[in-house]
Write a structure and sequence with these properties.
The structure is a homodimer. The first copy, chain A, is built from 18 helices and 16 strands. Chain A is an alpha+beta fold. The relative contact order of chain A is 0.10. Chains A and B meet through helix 1, strand 1, strand 2, strand 3 and helix 4 of A and helix 1, strand 1, strand 2, strand 3 and helix 4 of B.
Chain lengths: ~450, ~450
């Protein structure tokens, strides 16, 4: 007997129950994306490595899955690359031209540049597809996972930010997940760096203050000192990053602290506009200013958004922000946009932890007909067809197995109703409908049964 | 300026219009799969090459996309494999352990074996996912494309065949594609080979007669002669493969011709039962016996199914059949099943050729609010929120650009309604709703506008 087969580490099979749950999440996100006027696109799983390499840093380049060229891929390769055990690093680009996408952002940028003449700006797209990373697999980190991104490019208007915050709110309202939306603005971070006299140290400063929740103020101060920020600057920074009070009060304190930085003041103005307009439209979630929020600093240039679950400790479940130069690396500079990405795997974990799946979203087959032999089966199949024509998802047990075996299938698959057509029912042209949750049985006509199942 | 980026040959980007059309097809197939009690699964894009290799013949092995191992993949490789320009054929298994799936059947078989203890038999699953083949790209043939498969394993009952035929009929009824469903049975083909005295030549015989529609009887006869079938056998074969009349008449003639072959008679009995029961349930499509239908002969063991469009010449758009030994290669012998696969790309071509997309399935955003500046935009966003709460997909033009530019966006994106909130409308708390198809404008309250858009 052959060895039991397996799948590559870091990948997953999804059976019917996981699929129903995941689809509930994806369908919810997709519906809301569409509700807000975002249109779907899909890009190929494989991109040319020239598109992907150099976009995610050296570490990212290593984590790209690379696809071996077809045919005799060694033909024409410089023999020195194969000598002395081979030079994998320099051989790779010669034998692998394609790679699996690492995220949806770079393929989106490539898409925009490639199709620039066909696109209507502002271009609002969403994309829900898997991505692949050759990361070391661990709990909650997979080598194949889905991203759910929505971006609008070609518009500087803060209306886009406001709409994205509404969109986030609507997704989690539909999923019944209580969230807090944290906001910041890169210009505020720049302003802080300016004001404490360290504009060129903005990366060091934000990396350090990003950790304040985890390691506390003293450790952040120590780290800043280590990174070469003078003690005096750190003292000026402390009150800013430890501000308390309502978001409005903190914005006010921040405005006083950053009064001398036009960049910082612009960031505060943007935050105010976004927060006020979004709140005026009515949100379920709370909006919270978080000046320690940095997220991919080198990428974002304006609003920065991060979403956390109020009830499950799991880190960020959605994030995004505004960027100025999505497509510059592909020769199309100056395209501004703002986008968000839902973390489907973490949202799945949150819904599992809180058991938030509505019954109707995860019910597969609604009715199973039993099978007592050819005559009964033929009559059952006619009734089943009527039920399906009425939109009910149903099946018939294909063999006339023992009743107990048939019922145990309905049980195992959590099918809520079983329809029994035996000799008696057949004679009356009816069926016995068993509610599997209550055990209750009723002799019904097909149309009565349809009503009962739909009720 | 960087070179304009591109995608690997044989792959495709899908923009919003193609996505809407493709999703209409996938959603239709998915709904009908669920209506018939099939449950979704998904398997990883990459499988271990030990799972994939040797399952598709030598040619298939070459067409597998192989993924280069991560890190220093040459470490420990036998240096002789790198000597003298290298030995790609034998090097590959040392430097690539994973490959992209080539179809959904082998991953499904692997899934069934791996999860055998968790599965409820009969196991009815569907799977809609992309597959990859390093084929030479040409018109209509891609290196990444979707398959849409439904299979039931663990049951020999012909009810499964009958249900799959109903399922096929329902999918194409919903898509408004007129089809003919061709049926055959591998046992009939075996019976024919027996009756003409050439049971061991069944493959040669079926490969030849499979071509009768394309090359005609004389050419088929010549080919059979060439393949070593005696002239006498060929003469006995001719009347069988050129039978005319209704399906019932041809089954009758076939029964006379194959009377001496128990296997052949069993095949005829199965065909009769499947055809009669399916027709008794009422089909939109026609069922047609086609004894020249072979499709993957070495795989199928009973019913063979193929679907063609009545109105577009494009080959098979769906196919499938019964098999006896899906999982034997993974050490789990004797698992019988029957399955079908919808050819999404060809169905897409058929729908495009006949322009069969319903308007509501391909309408994205339903309403666009114009933008005349901050005050009007704020009021518009309130109205837009009400519309979205009522389930209408809408957007607001994010910038207060020239009216002409804003309207041209709605036009280009085929958004059916534009909502205009200017000074006058603002004063009245109303909006001007423009029907983009008729040019008609109406001053309406938000709730009136919601009714108008939904109507």
């Amino acid at each position: 007997m052959a060895q039991k087969p397996s799948i590559p580490k870091g990948t997953r099979d999804f059976g019917p129950i996981e699929m129903a749950r995941r689809n509930y999440i994806f369908d919810t996100i997709r519906s809301v994306f569409r509700l807000f006027g975002y249109a779907p696109i899909e890009t190929p799983s494989m991109e040319n490595l020239s598109t992907l390499m150099g976009k995610y840093g050296d570490e990212g380049d290593k984590l790209l899955f690379k696809i071996l060229n077809s045919g005799d891929y060694l033909r024409g390769v410089d023999p020195t690359l194969l000598a002395d055990g081979g030079d994998a690093l320099h051989l790779t680009p010669k034998i692998a031209e394609k790679g699996l996408r690492y995220d949806l952002t770079v393929p989106f940028a490539r898409f925009v540049v490639q199709h620039r003449n066909e696109l209507q700006m502002p271009f609002k797209r969403f994309q829900i597809q898997p991505v692949w990373r050759a990361d070391r697999p661990q709990k909650g980190r997979y080598r194949e996972f889905y991203q759910c991104d929505a971006d609008v490019v070609g518009s500087d208007s803060l209306i886009n930010e406001i709409e994205l915050l509404q969109l986030i709110d609507e997704v989690f309202r539909r999923l019944s997940v209580r969230i807090i939306i944290k906001l910041n603005n890169r210009k505020v971070l720049s302003g802080i760096a300016e004001i404490i006299g360290q504009p060129e140290k903005i990366t060091d400063i934000t990396v350090a203050i990003d950790k304040i929740d985890k390691i506390g103020l003293d450790a952040v101060k120590a780290e800043l000192l280590e990174r070469g920020i003078p003690a005096e600057s750190i003292e000026r920074l402390s009150p800013i990053i430890t501000m308390t009070g309502s978001t409005e009060q903190r914005l006010e304190s921040l405005a006083q602290a950053l009064a001398q930085s036009p960049t910082g003041m612009k960031g505060i103005e943007e935050l105010r506009e976004v927060i006020n307009a979004t709140e005026a439209l009515g949100l379920v979630a709370g909006l919270e200013l978080d000046v320690s929020l940095a997220r991919g600093l080198n990428y974002y240039t304006g609003t920065i958004i991060e979403v956390k679950s109020r009830d499950v400790e799991i880190g960020s479940i959605t994030g995004g922000g505004r960027y100025d130069n999505l497509t510059g690396v592909f020769g199309m500079p100056g395209l501004s946009g703002v986008g968000i990405s839902f973390g489907a795997d973490r949202i799945y974990d949150v819904l599992n932890a809180l058991d938030l799946y509505p019954k109707e979203a995860t019910t597969g087959t609604q009715v199973m007909f039993t099978n007592f032999g050819a005559t009964e089966a033929a009559a059952s199949m006619k009734m089943l067809k009527q039920m399906r024509d009425a939109g009910i998802r149903g099946e018939i047990y294909p063999d006339s197995a023992k009743m107990k075996k048939q019922m145990s299938r309905a049980d195992a698959l959590a099918i809520p109703y079983v329809a029994i057509v035996g000799e008696n029912e057949l004679a009356q042209g009816k069926l016995m409908l068993k509610n599997m949750a209550t055990g209750e049985q009723q002799l019904l006509s097909v149309s009565e049964a349809i009503d009962a199942i739909k009720a």
